[in-house]
Amino acid sequence: MPDSIATPAAPTIYSVIALMRTNYDAHARLTAAACWPLPAPSTGT
To answer: Domain of life, per the record (predicted)?
Structure first.
């Protein structure tokens, strides 16, 4: 793929990936909260 096409597209792709990661993280937290309502056991405390 020519750099002239790949370079302008890169920021958009990374932005979409970052957004997907954020949405996935939020979804994972909500799912964990729904499946395990109690605080997760921490190793240190």
So the answer is: Bacteria
Q: Locate 43 and state its tokens.
A: 């190793």
Q: Look up residue 44 and give its two tokens.
A: 């240190």
Report d(CA 25, CA 2) in Å as an integer.
Answer: 33
The token duo for 18 is 């970052």
Task: State how far the Cα of 38 lies from the Cα of 13, in Å rounded to an integer.
Answer: 37
9-40 tens-digit pLDDT: 667 878 888 888 888 888 788 777 776 656 66
Q: Which helix (H) or strand (E) holds 28?
A: helix 3-35
Question: Is the distance from CB of 32 to CB of 41 less than 8 angstroms?
Answer: no
